[in-house]
Write a structure and sequence with these properties.
Chain lengths: 753, 158
């Protein structure tokens, strides 16, 4: 078989990572010469000897490894090549990481759901091991010895008999001509041999980030590029009735004013209605935009207020609950219970507010459209652009930049579609720049939620009966106008997947219509579900006068793998993982909690107005327990200390896991203390960091992260699962400190923070 | 035409007096290391120095920066080896990295002042000094440590 440099089409045909990803394709076709193919490949592994979809080696020994996911601070641009380089026996100093373009061949590139490592761990090892084996084959061929007579070590193949060495760079060409090894023949390293996996390898862009040399979506510049600032309709599904652009066009630097297409009925990732001002610099575009005179037809949603919406959610839960799942008979359970506890929890609408607002550049030229954008999913960026423009997806070449934070916001490529639309209209490169106000007011919001829980407890202090209800507008509403209740994929985020072993359980939901675009935000519905669950267990503990940890441990019952389908009839989606690979283990749940108790002095006697609170949660197939210590003095809350125990399976890069947990604690702190989006007259009230505050340094506590069993089990999620336990641990700590129970977030409604 | 001195180089730019320095630096002079985060002086991502003082370039009109020495992150060192950059690297501070130019530019004078006095800044001093710089990724604990380490390094080096 003659291996050749492959075209993008061949990537698609022969080497979907869903297939093996190891085979590179056999023929150059005419399409291979096409501009599209050239463009797709040029910034990939074009100029070197490719060994498979992820690995190419240059003659000078440089090992190019593709990171097919995007980097937004979570560290996967380092973790992914770490895994490949490990099995490849590459010298890390010689590794050059190549950002993968949007390409179906890579499989899922949607960098969310804390999936980059857990979904690709085996595939990445295969890529590394296969490439290493091709190098071994090449060396064996050169020395005319059997492959068993050679081995790989840090960018060299060594001859066991003679100790002679051949450098990867020298072998590269010959290796690329080898038959691709059968997957079954691949040999993997034993964990004891790991040199990179499990090591705190610094992130690949570290130095550039300290020099201002790392490139984000906002940094793209092209000759002749226009910069667009867009005034969007403040109410979802409103329209532009008319506008006058005269004054805007008079601003020096402003070149064009273009009306955006009407908001689609199904909003999905399509742009919002509005008017774009295009200029030669950002300031001129922003100034011009301020001078637009637009008459809006605000439409039906202009009467929506979030406070009223919550009233409706409450009534719907009380009056029209919808069955989700059950076990036993709660009615009888409550009748025979000795003690009843009941509470309602509320979490507000939230927005992501990544440090870099959405930014995207698009340029139609030579029959293609190139897009450079801080998007989490280059493939949905291609596909939604294609759908919007009615053009083939192949025509869009998407290069993700670094993302200045994302937290789920940038997996909605509406902003890159704006750039595509404007670039097509102008036939010039266009960069769309979102202001902070745009980001806060035109987001895809984390839905506000209400949750009721009622428990029955027997005379021995066992929780026997559990009735939980939840309501919030569904993310599905963004893609389907008929969806008005929480979906199973959302209820699978800490609601239907109950860890605790109760005799009688009833789970219900209710209807809630979406007032704004709803989207997923870091840890998604786990935020509201983990909040209610963990606060409520603390309430029960207080009621029956037992330590919270004891109540939790007792409620977990005997160690078991829970099958929620069998136990409750709930269709648990398990974060897209098979239960065989990632069982729902109450043992791991228990262990993080017990480790937390051991590591933190939560039982210490504290002065008045200080207290510890705990919470534990499984999400993204990881297990995390958090303890927070607070003090409340003169109604001023300070969170002094947070401890976090994380079991996320095999730790690829322990330092990045710690960093993600530190970040998650601080993100969770923002939610607990200050995060709140209000909607009045259909419009988002908040607009910038003065009224949508996020955690600042003086509010950030000391954080200690403990990795539990970091070499056991397969890797699980890291980016998100730290967030959910934070807010309940803080509320529980406040109760311990003051006896005051807060069931509505954020806390700055009640306390100075 | 306005002349601005950035990182010891004079630049002639065509900008109205009220254009914020941020956009002049980024769009007209291509120093893209200085970032946009809020445009209202609320986040610190756009921090640069004017005559050694950290300022928020998003709310500073270019007219105010004439006849001054402006320093951006690109002016801290050519090779990324200033003590503050090394401390940031050794503590693996950045996550997404977007806020870090502003964090470094804001922290630099604190480090220099403290080193001159031969003291490491306390947690409280650092908190107060850095309160205007948001890091949404939550790198605060590491920034704090890096500031202390950089000060120690500067004292030793001086
Ligand atoms: S961009 Fe200047 S302070 Fe935020
Ligand atoms: S590192 Fe991402 S905002 Fe600070």
């Amino acid at each position: 078989m003659d291996m050749v440099k492959l075209s993008r089409r061949e990537f698609l045909t022969y080497s979907g990572i869903m297939g093996s990803g190891l085979i590179l394709g056999c023929n150059t076709t005419e399409q291979a010469q096409s501009k599209i193919a050239q463009n797709a490949i040029n910034s990939g592994l074009a100029k070197s000897d490719r060994l498979n979809l992820f690995v190419a080696i240059q003659a000078d020994g440089t090992v190019e490894i593709v990171s097919h996911r995007v980097e937004m601070g979570q560290g996967s641009k380092t973790g992914i090549p770490q895994i490949v380089a490990e099995e490849l026996e590459a010298d890390w100093q010689k590794v050059k990481v190549i950002q993968g373009l949007g390409n179906k061949a890579y499989g899922n590139q949607n960098t969310d759901g804390s999936t980059s490592i857990r979904l690709f761990f085996e595939k990445l090892r295969e890529m590394g091991a296969s490439a290493r084996m091709m190098l071994e084959q090449a060396a064996a061929q050169y020395w005319q010895v059997p492959i068993e007579a050679v081995y790989a070590k840090e960018n060299y193949i060594i001859n066991k008999n003679t100790q002679a060495k051949l450098a990867y760079g020298d072998l590269a060409e010959l290796a690329s001509k080898q038959v691709v090894p059968d997957i079954k023949s691949l040999k993997f390293k034993a964990p004891e041999q790991y040199r990179l996996i499990g090591k705190p390898v610094p992130i690949v862009d570290l130095k550039e980030m300290t020099m201002g040399k790392a490139n984000y979506g906002v940094d793209k510049t092209l000759p002749n590029m226009l910069i667009a600032s867009i005034e969007r309709c403040p109410v979802l599904h409103g329209k532009v009735s008319s506008f006058n652009a005269e004054k805007a066009l008079a601003v020096p630097g402003v070149v064009k004013v273009i009306e955006m297409p009407a908001t689609r009925d199904v909003v999905s990732f399509f742009p919002l209605a509005g008017v774009a001002v295009l200029a030669t610099n950002t300031w001129a575009a922003m100034q011009g935009r301020k001078l637009l005179e637009i008459q809006w037809d605000l439409g039906e949603k202009q009467h929506i207020n979030s406070d009223q919406e919550f009233e409706t959610y409450k009534n719907n839960l009380n009056q029209k609950p919808i069955f989700v799942a059950k076990k036993g008979d709660v009615k009888n359970g409550f009748l025979s219970a000795k003690t009843l506890v009941e509470a309602r929890y509320k979490t507000p609408y939230l927005v992501h507010a990544p440090m870099e607002p959405p930014m995207a550049t698009a340029w139609f030229h030579d029959g293609i459209c190139e897009i450079w954008a801080c998007v989490q999913d280059p493939q949905s960026t291609m596909n939604s652009a294609a759908a919007m423009m009615n053009l083939p997806a192949d025509m869009f070449v998407v290069e993700p930049t670094l993302l200045g934070g994302a937290f789920g916001r940038k997996s909605k490529p509406d902003f890159s579609n704006e750039a595509v639309f404007l670039a097509h209209k102008t036939q010039q490169p266009v960069k769309v720049v979102w202001s902070r106000e745009d980001d806060i007011q035109q987001g895809y919001y984390h839905a506000g939620a209400l949750e009721n829980i009622k428990a029955g407890i027997d005379d021995k202090g066992n929780i026997t009966t559990w009735h939980q209800q939840t309501v919030y507008p569904t993310i599905a509403s963004t893609f389907n106008n008929d969806k008005h209740t929480p979906q199973d994929f959302e209820l699978s985020l800490g609601f239907g997947d109950l860890a605790y072993d109760f005799d009688h359980v009833l789970m219900e939901k209710a209807e809630a219509k979406a007032p704004v675009r709803i989207g997923w935000m870091r840890s998604v519905c786990n935020i509201q579900h983990a909040f209610a669950l963990n606060c409520f267990l603390d309430e029960i503990a207080h009621k029956i006068n037992k330590p919270t940890a004891e109540v939790m441990l007792k409620a977990l019952g005997a160690d078991r793998n829970v099958n929620h389908k069998e136990e409750f009839g709930f269709s648990f989606t398990n974060y897209s993982e098979k239960l065989e690979r990632h069982p729902y283990s109450t043992k791991r749940y228990r262990e993080v909690l017990q480790h937390l108790i051991k590591q933190t002095p939560i039982d210490q006697t504290l002065p008045n107005n200080q207290g510890w609170g705990i919470a534990v949660h499984r999400s993204f197939v990881s297990y995390i327990a958090v303890a927070s210590k607070v003090s409340v003095v003169n109604n001023k809350l300070s969170v002094d200390e947070i401890h976090c125990v994380v079991d996320c399976g095999l730790a690829i890069n322990p330092d990045r896991i710690k960093a993600q947990m530190e970040g998650a604690m601080i993100f969770g702190l923002s939610i607990a203390l200050m995060g709140k989006i209000d909607i009045k007259a259909g419009q988002v009230v908040q607009s910038n960091f003065h009224d949508y505050p996020v955690t600042r340094m003086p509010q950030a506590p000391n954080i200690t992260v403990h990795l539990l069993n970091p070499t056991e089990n397969v890797p699980s999620g890291v980016g998100e699962p730290g967030v959910p336990p934070v807010a309940p641990s803080i509320c529980n700590a406040i109760f311990a400190a003051t006896g005051q129970r807060y069931r509505d977030l954020p806390l700055n409604q009640y306390l100075t923070v | 035409m306005i002349t601005l001195n950035v990182n010891n180089q004079d630049h002639q730019i065509d900008a109205p007096d009220e254009m914020p320095l941020l956009w002049a630096i980024r769009d007209l002079m291509q120093y893209t290391g200085t970032k946009f985060g809020c445009g209202k002086g609320l986040c610190g991502a756009c921090t640069v120095h004017i005559n050694g003082q950290p300022i928020r370039s998003c709310i500073t009109p270019v007219a105010l920066a004439k006849n001054s020495k402006i320093k951006t992150i690109e002016g801290v060192s050519d090779k990324g080896d200033h003590v503050i950059q090394i401390a940031w690297q050794e503590n693996n501070v950045p996550q997404c990295g977007y806020c870090q130019s502003g964090q470094i530019m804001n922290a630099l004078p604190l480090i220099e002042r403290s080193a001159e006095k031969n003291t490491t800044p306390t947690d409280e001093e650092i908190d107060n000094h850095m309160a205007g710089n948001i890091c949404r990724c939550g790198t605060y604990p590491r920034i704090k440590q890096a500031i202390k380490d950089a000060t120690v390094a500067l004292i030793k080096g001086a």
